[in-house]
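User: Hi! Is it possible to get a structure for several chains at once, not just one? Here's what I have:
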Amino acid sequence: GAGVSQSPRYKVAKRGQDVALRCDPISGHVSLFWYQQALGQGPEFLTYFQNEAQLDKSGLPSDRFFAERPEGSVSTLKIQRTQQEDSAVYLCASSPHISSSRTRHEKLFFGSGTQLSVL
Amino acid sequence: AQTVTQSQPEMSVQEAETVTLSCTYDTSESDYYLFWYKQPPSRQMILVIRQEAYKQQNATENRFSVNFQKAAKSFSLKISDSQLGDAAMYFCASRREYGNKLVFGAGTILRVKS
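Assistant: Yes, the chains can be modeled jointly so their relative placement is included. Here is the combined structure:
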């Protein structure tokens, strides 16, 4: 595809349910990020992948959150035993650059996010 | 740690007029990058403009320009000749020079009146 694709666009879950959110980055992009955006707030970093390696997961709020990118392309963010405070838009972004380097002209390409509502 | 503050929850501008969105930040880094992103209702974040902190010259991109005051840690966005399509949420963000994550402010909703 031409851009970063995320699915589903909307997800409603009952409290305690497990959910899986998918991100298809732009083909060939090395770096992949997940961000969490609560209502009325700016996005907050969750985790970063360089190819299949998860190099930074410092933003994951609890051990209920798990992300993977097994083949270095598609990534899945899984949330176990969802809570109401998990309700947010989950944004995925990709970049052709290695983000830990001095990439002066790095450009991130964002998807349209998955809006998760936990009832 | 880096922090980014946007003190204007909402701004309005008349079509064809100029508006300035404010942003202040805090960082202990000597070099870093600053960004303004636009988020329309589609939710897709779009890069508006980028500034490298080591550059004294303010970045410009067509109708968009910044006023970067490094000593004051201020990074405001000026939109000239505002258009209806500029209406969106605008986020200020920072990134360390050798970093892999953006730190965003809380955003400013920009409304453009015809």
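Chain B has a mean pLDDT of 94. Chain B is about 0% helix and 55% strand.

User: Great, thank you!
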